[in-house]
Queue: 2 jobs
Job 1
Amino acid sequence: MHLRLEEISKAWGGHTVLDRVSFSAGASDFVCLLGPSGCGKTTLLRIVAGLTEPDAGRVELAGKDITHVPARERGMGIVFQSYSLFPDLTAAANVGYPMRLRGIPASTIATRSTELLAKVGLGGFGGRFPDELSGGQQQRVALARALAAEPALLLLDEPLSALDPAIRAQLRGEIRSLQRSLGIPTIMVTHDQDEALALADTIVCMKAGRIEQIGSPRDLYERPSSRFVADFIGHANLLPTAFVREVMPGFLERRPPGADATWELCLRPEDIVLEADPRGDAVVSDVTYLGNLARAGLAWRGQRLVAELHGRNTLTPGEAVAVDAIRGAWVCT
Amino acid sequence: MNAVAAPHTPTRTSHLAWLLLAVPCAGLLVFFLYPLLSVAWRSVTDAGGAFTLANYARLLDDPGLPRAALHSVETGLVTTLATVAFGLGIAMALHRSRLPGKALIRATLLLPMLAPSLVLGLGLVLLLGRNGLVHRLTGLPTDIYGFPGLVIANTLYGLPQVVLIVSAALARTPARHYDAAASMGATPWRQFIDITLPRLRFALLAAAFLVFTETLTDFGSAVIVGGNYRVLAMEIYSEVVGQLDFAMGATLGMVLLLPALLSVWLGRLAKRRQDSGDGAPGRALMPAQHAGRDGFLAIVSLIALLPIVAVVATVAYVSFVKLWPYQQSLTLANYTGMSEGFGPVWTSLAMSFIAAVAGCVLVFALCAGLRKAPPALARPLQFIASLPAAVPGMVVGLGYVMAFNHGPLSGWLHGSLIIIAACSLYHYHAQAFLTMQTGMRQVPDALEDAVAAFGGGTREVLRDAVLPFTAPAAISTFFYLFMRSMVTLSGVIFLVTADVGLASVSVMRLDENGFLAQAAAYAMCVVVAGALALGAMRLLLHTLKERRHVA
């Protein structure tokens, strides 16, 4: 099942939320729409779901134009952040709901609901009401319900955001393996970069209604195309061209053409190598001890850097160090 | 993977969504705006239908009218002052004292909701009138008619509403503010002045405007205890019923409408500015031990609440007296031998039931329709739906007479139960609308979207997502409309005919003719019906909460 979005635009009361957004997703892809709040990612998901109509553009599913097909005829499964279960229905009845709307016989519904609940790790919880389930369990029920009608596409709208960190990580892993085993194309909206990196085959990074970059998690982290992406995903030390020319001229060779001001060098904290050296031109300003690693803040010729040090080290604030970088990526400003 | 087509076609869905708005809007248009405009139109036209301001000029010619206006305003101001002061005291007793018996205070405050100002007025007359119980027992020359009677009746009537508004504001003040103040050395009195009062400002203002509007437009107690002290509502009644001068009635109605509109508008402003409180209320507030405070609040509460009990108890007692005030022996004859039988009570019940059912359905449809309506349409509709709060019942009733007694719709509406039910419904439309809207806000958008995404249309969204969350609000709306319709007098007084009598109107007529014991019996029927309805509502809400897993 192939999804294609073409030049989708949407404005609410004069304010542009989506500006000619296009991307496509393959048969069993896990796509994450990633961006800060207000970037239009949720609106985009709602347009795919058919809950919001775009002002312009085209939505295509398996080669068929579904732009103006209402949500209820699209056959998609959707999971929201929270509060989307029917409070007066049991977990099993919640899961059975989409099948009931489609007129599937009650006996089939009962069997399927039990299967689906078992699949999300809630076998035996079918008789519970939503208020008798934890937040994580409620989201599992919502997930089972979204899968109940054999959707063409699974849509997840920040499904983990309302959960505790520990449960979030656990459920994240389960969503991924469930999606892999069912081979169901999935689009998830999130503002959590860790979630996107861990789950997605493809990340669509958005900013202010436009797509900044599309690529695999590795692409976006290691080869961010813009300063925004570099900053949004992971920590980025961004160095102006003039500074790089002065201290690390070796990187200039691979710089794309353009004025100095249009490019910056992005160094990830783990790309930076430090060596204790009394003659070094950088000074350690602070060290945060995090157990398996330490994060060091540096003042280097008027530029502030953050470096990550793995293993045991003995750097202390005020110490002079020599700085080198093993790799870096040029990003547009 | 194959997506199965949903069972309904989109045209049918949009049809239903459209109907949701269209039907209640038509209702508001025909049964509220049209009568209201009829009154306004009548006040500025002469007998031939030409535009004139002569009616307003006539107001000033009659020396009785400016005096009545003055009386209305002075009664309103004094009542407002008294009600807000006592209401604040009772709310403080409920939320900031260690007094025992708070449940008893709450129960007493239910009485004025069951016994309308009409019954409170009747009770006052029976208790403190020239031939009242107090005079009978002590021989003191009591005379409650006029200004004092009006102020007391309206104060008792307004108290529960003030307590409700102030209590809500008190409950929103978190305990940690008091903890912080106490840790800095503030005395309880300073805490009251520096923390409690500032946070109550807007609640007190909103309550004051509410009581002022209600007192200004009250007819029930005016007709019973007003006596020779004439207020505007009485003047309208006399113009229309006594002299059949509809133009003058309409003009006076407009005069009454303006301050009511202004007052409701100011009250809204005050309410909007109300402190919404902190997100997390934190630990519950436990007032410190303070005998002086508790003693004072106990006295204030007793002064305000004892009369309520006394007045209702007097009505109950007199309803069993053979021939008040001359033959004090007890009998059931007032109930078994009612002049019109139980007819008016049944009529009242039937009318209230119609108003409540229709109101519940219409207001639910309106609120459901508004959820998806564009703001350009939703905002004016919300305004119109809340406007009845500012329109005195007498003006609504007068509008009905003008719109439906002679107009194109008079043939099948005049003198029918339907028209009286419609009048009650639209008179109390604003509060019903507000209750339902608050209920609608409980419906999570995500649930509604989920139904749509899984193949449900408007019908399924309403049934599976909206209804479970709004059921409590719908029940409250139903019983609110039912109880109000049972006791209403001002709106329906112009609409009752010889064939269609109502219990509340019977109370008034019997009182006018001196059959006080029988009036009391009808009044008690109204109070008991209200109490049963209230009990039924509580029971229903409780079972609903137990059975369905909706907060």
Job 2
Amino acid sequence: MRAQLRAELLKHRSTRTNLGLLATLLGLVLLAVLLHGLALPAGELVGAEDQLSIVVGWGAKLGVLFAGLLGAMSMTSEFRHGTIRPTFLVTPQRSRVVFAKALAGTSYGSAFGLLATAVALGAGRIALGARGIESRLDLHDQILFVAGGAVGAALWAAVGAGVGALVRNQVPALVGLCAWLLLVEGLLLGDLFPAIGTVTRFAPGAAAAAMSGLEADELLAPVGGFGVLVLYALVGTGLGAVATARRDVG
Amino acid sequence: MSGPNDAGIAPGGPVVVARSLTKRYGATAAVDGLSFSLREGTVTGFLGPNGAGKTTTLRLLLGLAEPTAGEALVFGRRYRELDHPARLVGAVLESNDFHPGRSGRDHLRVLALAADLPADRVADALELAELGGVAGQRVATYSLGMRQRLGLAAALLGRPRLLVLDEPANGLDPGGIRWLRDFLRRFAAEGGTVLISSHVLAEVAQTVDDVVILQRGRAVASGRLADLASEGTTLEEAYFELTAGAA
């Protein structure tokens, strides 16, 4: 398993894919945070809860999404380029490969989450400061936001690896992750269907958001979010490993 | 050193054994009760028209696909039960199983790490495949011939005793084909075993000792090339006679 983990870490380092993902992630975080911080009416941005959930929260949400994409691509790009054949020839115990990918993904995913939330905090402070709005986020809020964003993204990379192992085909896997996190959970969690919203708090994206302290009155407590997301990461990776061990490789 | 005992396999037994190997996809049998074995130190040509089941058989042999019935054993075990497969078996199934953005050297380093092989094997394999000068470049910049040789370098990383090559001469220029033929003969002369699939007779006739001829998932002939092509018939004539009626 250590050999597989070292191989998976080198796979991440030896292409420019992760750098491209990271650059896109940070660019989108800047765009989203600056737009919301600069354009929304000042009256909506005075409370700590509003500043966290409406403005800087994008750092955590996008960090989680891109960590999921990174985890999924670690699996799907092997099927796309055919490297899955040499990979499985060298390690025919295929579940080891999936678990190694999930673990390697968590290290890069946590870096994604850390950088995205840190950049979001900085950009939020600049945007609000430019309008003379005082930042209400105390040190505790900021530490929870960054730490929760890093750990949430780490776990989401493992979820992504599981999704990639189950779906195998790159485009549906990536589109599915984007659609789920950016659209589906938001629809289910909103005011539209309050009854469904209480269940959706336990969805994987909502659990990650809870870890960063977002929408505290609606979502789980950070520790609860962590527990729920750990379960998703374990179950997702486990299902991916089982499916990968059983299915033929073309 | 990667002697046989490293991988816990005793020498002397048959290198590859397929017994009643069968793979069905729905109602179609791609491989249908196929049995054959490979002698140590020989090059065996795995011949047959396109769609005869050659590639499917190789995937069953290498644990990438599970047989519907029967079994395929490599050094006496199912491939997926081998502890250090890279030290026993090297295989090239497709000519382009690389990430285009990764360098040739990093491709090999990844596999060497996963197989727990010493790092100096990467340089050895690059030198053997004559890729030293381009090893740091992204595979996207490689010609087809260079990709073929990189695939072979990857297969040889663990200094295996069995080489499995699926249509390795596709896209090679005449010089490359000759290089491959000489390499395989040398590999077998040193005690290695080779299974090489092809639908082009001419390219294997000068390379192989034995042949297994496949037709609609079944072996229609197997044995020494010399026996098959004797009595005034060439291998080509024997091949067409045996596979008559195929597309």
